Amino acid sequence: MTDKVRFDTDTYARFAAELDAVRRAAFADVGERDARHIRRMRGIAQGTAIAGRGLLMFGFGPVSWIAGVLGLALAKILENMEIGHNVMHGQYDWMNDPSLSSQTYEWDIVCDGEHWRHSHNVEHHDHTNILGKDHDFGYGMLRMSEQQKWSPASLLQPLWYLLLALNFQWGVAVHDIKIGRFLKGRMKRAEFGERMRPFLRKAGRQLFKDYVLFPALAFWQWPRVLLGNLVANGLRNLWTNAIIFCGHLTEHAQTYTRREVENETRGQWYLRQIQGSSNLEGGRLFHLLTGHLSHQIEHHLFPDLPAPRYAEIAPQVRDICARYGVHYNTGGFLRQYAGVMARLFRHAWPTQPRLATAG
User: How many whole angstroms separate alpha carbon 302 and alpha carbon 295?
Assistant: First the structure.
């Protein structure tokens, strides 16, 4: 793992000023091109969903079933990653389109939008990789740092990870309910009930749509449709889990303690976002399928910038990092995901904290 970089006060200020300049220039160019992109992505997602569901409902034989599953999975991935995630970050609020409002958008997933806006936009992005505050770091199930307490249950965390990956939308959905706090007696039953209600409503609608309504509309084809929807959701879960875990849990992604971020300046916040994030390299289609979270570094620096802009500003961010001696964590998907798995298996054992050194 690379060591953390620390600057003096003046260097932090210059570092922040350079990144602020990148932000201003990028936002100054936002406009119709970005509006066309998100509308086109929404049209593609809707079209592939119709095609996928049509092949499942009216097709015959394994080829049309596989094509239907892949079409529906693609639609769900695009809707969740490139559309839902980015819209709910406020990247398209400037369009004043009610259907693309960050405050009211509901995505095709069992997680309630309001729950996600809090657990992700606030808890995760404000407290990126701060142990005990960023609950996305390990999702309350996995030990991914020497500074996290080890228990014998950690030995089974490769199994916990597999279960989480297969059911990832459910893991995301219960994230903001804080079930652990309730089970430990740190949350009253009334508050727990309030947190559960939006989840139950949203999950009920999603389950009814995928596993009751559409299978029923297919009449005698209902087993084919039900299984196809289940597999499409599973493929979406596995893909989104892999991409998201590559964002902050690779070998070189840094973690922070609460003490380290006390009285954090803007320059220190920028530096933490870079050192706690990881990028993925690939082509344009790959970036679209990741919702441009393949540029996790740029996304964490400027989460409300329309996501296709990340690839454009990445060379500038990388150049700034090089000049200030900051490691820019990037690599191919297989290499970065292998790093996640290595970290997962290593910390299943009672590893000891290492001494941090300044870069």
Answer: 11
267 is a domain residue = yes
d(CA 198, CA 135): 20
**Per residue in 191-223, pLDDT tens?**
999 999 999 999 999 999 999 999 999 999 999
Instruction: For residue 357, tell me if it sits in a domain.
Output: no
Structure tokens at 118: 């809090």
The 10 Å Cβ neighbour count of residue 11 is 14
Tokens 């309730």 label which residue?
182
The answer to the question of residue 270 being in a domain is yes
How many C-beta neighbours within 10 Å does residue 213 have?
A: 13
What's 10-37 look like in SS3?
A: HHHHHHHHHHHHHHHHHHHCCCHHHHHH
Token pair for 313:
């500003």
| 357: pLDDT strictly greater than 60 | no
Residues 6+ positions from 315 with CB-CB distance below 8 Å = none
Can you tell me the distance from the alpha carbon of 116 to that of 107, in angstroms, rounded to the nearest whole number?
Answer: 10
pTM assigned to the model: 0.93
Residue 257 has a CB neighbour count (10 Å cut-off) of: 13
Structural domain total, the chain: 1
Which tokens in the block code for residue 69? 């599953």
Single-letter residue type at 1: M
Phi, psi of 264 (to 5 degrees): -70, 130
**Residues 305/23, Cβ–Cβ less than 8 Å:** yes
Beta bridge partners of 332: 281
Instruction: Reduce the DSSP state of residue 279 to 3 states and report it.
Output: strand
Classify the C-alpha dihedral 200-206-210-214 as positive or negative.
positive
Query: Do the domain assignments include residue 352?
Result: no
pLDDT tens column, 279-320? 999 999 999 999 999 999 999 999 999 999 999 999 999 999
Q: Are the C-beta atoms of 13 and 267 separated by less than 8 Å?
A: yes
The first and second tokens of residue 278, run together, are 């990881």
Element (H, E) at 236: helix 222-248
